[in-house]
Design a protein that fits this description.
With 127 residues, this protein is of the alpha+beta class. The protein has two helices and six strands, in the order H-E-E-E-E-H-E-E. The protein is globular, with a radius of gyration of 14 Å.
Length: 127
Amino acid sequence: MPTAAEIASLQAYLTSKSITATQHPDGFFYVIHVQGTGVFPQLSSTVNIKYTGKLTNDVIFDEDQTGNANFLLSSLILGWRRGLPLIQEGGRITLYIPPSLGYGCNQSGSIPPGSNLIFTIDLIDVL
């Protein structure tokens, strides 16, 4: 579970950007842009997505807009495992993920340790 400091950090970021997001009981925030009409993904699902991942300084650290990105949901970071099932196929969501639901205090590629993460995800298909 995220610490109070992690949640406060995300809340401060959202406030500074005038973003109205919903806080999930697991400690991340989200905005559902499109709910979708297909099936909801399960942890055992493979998801076909388009996504952009960025830091709170707007630096993009990863993205795939081809629509060819397929992942087993259970193999992804906790923030995705808990956030992606909030939408259905055809949906779009932005997840605001604290470090403890992302990569924690570990460096991951160009992501600094202890980073808040922002992912905008289009759920194209649940396989």
